[in-house]
Design a protein that fits this description.
Layout: E1 8-13, E2 16-21, H1 30-41, E3 45-48, H2 55-62, E4 68-69, E5 77-78, E6 81-88, E7 91-92, E8 95-96, E9 119-126, E10 134-138, H3 139-145, H4 148-154, E11 158-161, H5 163-169, H6 179-184, E12 188-191, E13 193-195, E14 202-204, E15 211-214, H7 219-233, E16 239-242, E17 249-253, E18 257-261, E19 272-278
Parallel strand pairs: 2-3
Antiparallel strand pairs: 1-2, 3-17, 4-19, 5-6, 6-19, 7-8, 9-17, 9-19, 10-16, 10-18, 11-12, 11-15, 13-14
Length: 279
């Protein structure tokens, strides 16, 4: 079981993901923040429960993982906090306060960026009693489970990722891309297999929403390669399903995981979650 200093931890599933126990981030020192960041870097998913954080404290903690990254759709950021993105079905004064039904389908955040996004952090303020879970898939474990021929074959491929393709084709919340958004998010090409610099582990770098094509293949043929690998990587043995509670804080490494949000009864329950992106 991973340990750092006096922090107590436990694995979320086998050796995939870790929960840090009995820590209050409002009272934690910079040294403790550093210990938490070190635990996170050695694991793909990090969970800390029972937090009560102001936006300022949330950003102070998030910064211990690296530089904060602006969001592509800034119309859904928290007023006064451009690096906090609001996920919610709540409506105040007739206006949605955040984006709803985001993250449905297996994907990787920020895969359309020229520099792939490393970390996503979610902090839950209000959660539904049923539904709304987030599943995380271990794409390092999935890569290791491939046979040697597939490792060689997929290690030679590159995928073209597109924000415009994502927004125009996703199942929920399709939206036109503004000229400004298109200018900020040109198409990006990334390897299908990544190598983590700190430990040399390889992972499948997949995102169903943004994968427009595999370089050198017909578009639909390439997307089928990505879909087939995503189906392989999201088998139950590679997946941890997180049931959210208010006060939960979860961070994950987009370079070695896939994740997928689930629906909930949005006529019965309200959800409010803050998202931070970190390089």
């Amino acid at each position: 079981m991973p340990m750092a200093g006096a922090l107590r931890t436990r694995f979320l599933k086998d050796d995939f993901g870790v929960e840090i126990l009995d820590v209050d981030l409002n009272e934690a020192s910079d040294e403790t923040f550093g210990e938490i960041a070190d635990i996170y870097r050695r694991n793909s998913v990090l969970l800390i429960r029972n937090q009560n954080l102001s936006p300022d404290t949330l950003l102070r903690f998030s910064s211990c993982f690296g530089p904060l990254v602006p969001h592509t759709r800034d119309e859904y950021t928290l007023p006064g906090y451009p690096t906090i993105y609001v996920l919610s079905n709540k409506v105040v004064n007739g206006k949605p306060i955040g984006i709803h039904r985001d993250g449905i389908g297996w994907h990787t955040d920020g895969s359309y960026l020229q520099r792939p996004l490393i970390t996503t952090l979610l902090y839950a303020l209000e959660t539904p009693l049923e539904g709304g879970d987030t599943r995380f898939a271990d794409t390092c474990g999935a890569y290791e489970a491939l046979d040697e021929e597939d490792k060689r074959k997929y290690g030679e491929l590159e995928v073209l990722h597109s924000f415009t393709y994502l927004m125009e084709n996703r199942e929920y919340g399709r939206a036109a891309v503004t000229p400004e958004q298109k200018a900020k998010t040109p198409e990006a090409v990334h390897p299908l297999v990544l190598t983590r610099p700190h430990d040399g582990k390889k992972s499948l770098y997949l995102s169903l929403g943004t994968a427009q094509e595999v370089v050198g293949y017909e578009p639909e043929e390439g997307r089928e390669i990505v879909r087939r690998l995503a189906d392989f990587a999201t088998q139950p043995e590679f997946v941890y399903a997180h049931k959210w509670k208010a006060g939960d804080l979860v961070a994950w490494n987009n370079l070695c995981t896939l994740h997928c949000a689930s629906l909930y009864d949005d006529m019965k329950y309200e959800r409010l979650v803050y998202r931070v992106w970190i390089d």
